[in-house]
Protein: Bacterial sugar transferase domain-containing protein
Organism: Faecalibaculum rodentium
Amino acid sequence: MSKLGIIKCGLETLCTWLLLLLFPFPMNIRFRFLIVWVLMQFIAGRYRHKALLVWDELKFLLVSYICGYIASLMMFSYGHGFPWHDVFYLTLFYAIDFIVVVILNRYAHLWFWKHVKHNVLIVGTGPEARQLYSVCRRNRFSLMDPLGFVDCSSDPSLHVVQETEEKLPRKVYPWQKLEKAVADHDIDTILIAIPDLGKSDMKRIFGKAYDLVPNVNIMPRIDGEINFASQINDFDGSLLIATSRTRDPYFQLAAKRIADIIAAIPGMVILVPLTVYVWISNRRQGDKDPIFFVQERIGRDGRLFKMYKYRTMVPGAEAILEEMMERDAAIREEYEVNKKLKDDPRITKAGKFLREKSLDEFPQFFNVLKGDMSLVGPRPYLPREKEDMGDQYEDVIAMKPGITGMWQTHGRSDVDFDQRLELDAFYYRNWNLWLDFVLLIRTAKSMLGKGDQGAY
């Protein structure tokens, strides 16, 4: 168990036992429930710090609680009729305890972070190292605290070619002073973030890092060949990475469609008052044109469909865009690279607010109900963008386009067209129901929060 795992195990077990005392179970049954609960937490691997993301931890929690609940149900006697009261109290106990443990788990990472965090040194000074630093700082759940960088290009014996960032947020040590950096910051974890390292350089860097700290992690160059279903296997001394994907996950696809319909119905109900609000808001600002915008988009298997949105631009926006690109070469270049404009003068005042909160997408619930779109999926691309999609096209059209997806939750306006394609292809290769759940939660947080990732 990790240090934080020991702390969480103690706190959660104590809280679970105190909660059990509030329910009318015999004492021997309480002890059995507690033993089952603890066993399920260990079987799920919750205290080994295998989860680097809060979503992974939530998945472990759900698995442990569902299995624990089923195992606890088997302890009741069903010989004299169904024990409705006992089952009710057990269900209520597990529901309340799950909420308590989720909250406790969240704050345990905050309360004890300084005492259980890993002091991290990032080997590399390129964009991958900078990205890894940002992820560590943003994702405090991983308990990784990056305290410095190591520049390997300063060592003539290493064949590392990389450009140093103009300004890195932490001190940069030359490779020759790796030991000093480890000693200065009491480093226990090294992250190697140079994906293009050659075999000899990787062997030397990894070997030295492994001699200095107990934990060494490597960011590999994968370029889409590996997904989250990949496994590392020992094939009689040879390292093999096995990658597989279920081509026809019928059960999950059926469940996804059912979830789409269930979500689309209340979405359509909310659409009515929201449409009234948009109509009034537009009229107050002098905009008396139609509030809906209909446009052809590329759907699953390349089929075209009509997508509905609230109009956020002035009428005739496409013709205006053509005129703007003819007059200004910079605008043409920006649009051809990003397929959008950062400071787009065609967006109305009401439209800007709708885009920032993603409310302009609400009419797409009609597309979801029809089956043209899904709640979560790749971005719905324009037919004219097909040529620019290149090799990613087949991956993108393999799934129904979604109201939200990887692009909306992982950068949105901060990513260019090619990066959006990579995110959508990533979604296809790694899709499962759990990924949809995570993206929906992140979308809700983005809509309710005050982040800087609004649409333009």
